[in-house]
What does this fold into?
Amino acid sequence: MTPRRPAPAALALTTTLAVVLLAACSGPGSEPSPGPASSTAQGSPAPSPSSAAPSTTPSPTPSTTPSPTPERPDDVLAGWSLEQKVGQLLMVGVSVSDPAAVSAESIRDKHVGNVFLHGRSTAGVDATRELVDGYTSLVSRRTTHGTPLLVATDQEGGLVQVLRGPGFSEIPKATEQATWKPATLQRRAQGWGDELAAAGVNLNLAPVMDLVDEDDAADNPPIGYFGRNYGFSPSTVVRSANAFGAGQRAAGVEPVIKHFPGLGRVTENTDTDARVTDDVTTRDDASVRVFARGIDAGARYVMMSSAVYDRIDPDTPAVFSPVVVGDVLRGDLGFDGVVMTDDVSAAAQVQDRSPGERAVDAVDAGVDLVLASADPSVAPAMADALVAKARQDPAFAEKVDASARRVLAAKAASAG
It folds into this structure.
């Protein structure tokens, strides 16, 4: 997400501080721009990611629990332990400037099946690939049932660009991209996708499809203030975001459209503020319909906002809301792909729940993939909570299976 808009006296520092405060993916969890707990200042040299690649020395094999639900022999989940299934529902953060051992341990010991590169690096494609290879080498029958990792990052452009340096282009912010013809944007986005693919990244938490009101853009900290929006009308958002997504997909990198049902009208940042609320957006709003157009264009992944939407479900943040996830996104829009959270490890908006509750509440609402990027140390607690809930609640265990199948199907479709 992004920081609060600075006061006029601090405007001279906006560019530098923005890189330190912008939140990841949605701004929030995916660490797109400077995230509160993660980023290196843009333009300052970052240590080579390869210097801290995880050791691949096997650790003691943890005990695993047979799946509580029987599968058919031809079921894609046949032979998977419950812990391995749960691992497919988690994505753990890996700092590109200071990788933490906890992320590798989460793969080895908790079977986490996906990683997110966050922070800021100027080390370039080759060093990033070396870092990624250190994590993908942990894949085995014991850890992820042999299933490859989703390797994600935030490469939107402008202030929200995790990876820079030799081999990576400087990507302009979305408001500039929106001035290009769709064919031009698609071609350039494919080139940016080729760079990510060369670095081992196969999932980009972009493009932003949040609809921002032009008159209030400067007062919209997560999106409008930093020019992360593709213009100000539904038509420009749809045209440009779909062109960006098509280019990435052509390069073998899956795009993630975000942040459903839209962060373009909030006046605070869910990364740094609690009780962030949108009191404008409705279930059939234009803000929602732009996501429908993104889904129609082939999006396989949608990221949820963690704001509360008073006119849709006033009681629960969207990421934990069965109404927003199940009734609106799955029901009204007919989306049957992977639904993921923004960062729910460190965002202020979700701190009223424990890490385990955040993971359980998201999956219970219909989310498939839980992102713990800014504070990867909470991923083990999330895994344990999901396993415990599935063991004691057969209905929840079925939701775990359904989400694991959707993640595996999306991985297979991308690989194919």
Summary: The domain at 17-47+91-415 is CATH 3.20.20.300 (TIM Barrel). The longest strand covers residues 90-95. DSSP finds twelve helices and 14 strands in the chain. The CA atoms of residues 209 and 258 lie 6 Å apart.
